[in-house]
């Protein structure tokens, strides 16, 4: 008799990573499918990691002590309010594992981060997707209406991946006031460094005085440490402790911890790079709109092309032209293509190829 696989695991949808840069295209090829930072490591990071790997024969610091102190000082929160993992997606898994069990429900907008329904189903809880509102934004009223006595968590992605808009802070405050106190509200701010809308959610501010709120952040995007996988949550101490309790021991490598500390010390260079990417994002968004595409407000390091039934064809057209993007083709009205903001040549190539695309 074969080993029994849990039904919840056997039924999981597959997570689809961004495809690598296409081969065989005439001219340069660009990977714009994974929301990666196109810049190399920040100043000082390579030297710090090279020094750290000399001690690879030793286990990393289980408590992430230096990293927690540095991140806590940067954010103005106590280290005991932090829990780290291998990317914010791992922290998401740990957070759900700490609070969910079979019979619980987890509410989230859809389309949103692809890992959400996977993470929910692993716990045995039931995913409750709620369609996005006009403009590809979170419909907070519909999310609130979806809360039932079985709801354990509501997940909010702001800016929303893959569509781009951020939730307004005042709307989040009203939403939190209406959510039962026992329901955890997870505010996923993986792209917070790229937000330039002053009205957008301020996750750490929403956390103040609300023990039901947890904020997720990452070093993968703006800080360019995607290959080292470091993310964290900010939560009230008891919840953060629960997340740490279910986390994989020694999950953050010695090199990754060193990279985070060095990256935090390179704040001026970080800001310059983020500002450049935000400017490039505006150019890409405006260029696509000028071609007649209804691109939503973009607050991450990517833009969204609402391609509808032409999603797969658009994705293949970009790939044939040397640019691999991330098509979301599920046969749903909200299908579209996510395009990461890349180097200037890549962004120019996107607009060149988009000019020849059929319109949905």
TrEMBL record:
Cofactor: pyridoxal 5'-phosphate
Keyword match Transferase: yes
Enzyme Commission number: 2.6.1.57
Domain Aminotransferase class I/classII large per the UniProt entry, residue ranges: 31-351
Pfam families to which the protein is assigned, alphabetical: Aminotran_1_2
Reactions this protein catalyses: an aromatic L-alpha-amino acid + 2-oxoglutarate = an aromatic oxo-acid + L-glutamate
Leader sequence segment: none
Function: Aminotransferase that catalyzes the conversion of aromatic amino acids and 2-oxoglutarate into corresponding aromatic oxo acids and L-glutamate.
Family membership: Belongs to the class-II pyridoxal-phosphate-dependent aminotransferase family.
Protein name: Aromatic amino acid aminotransferase
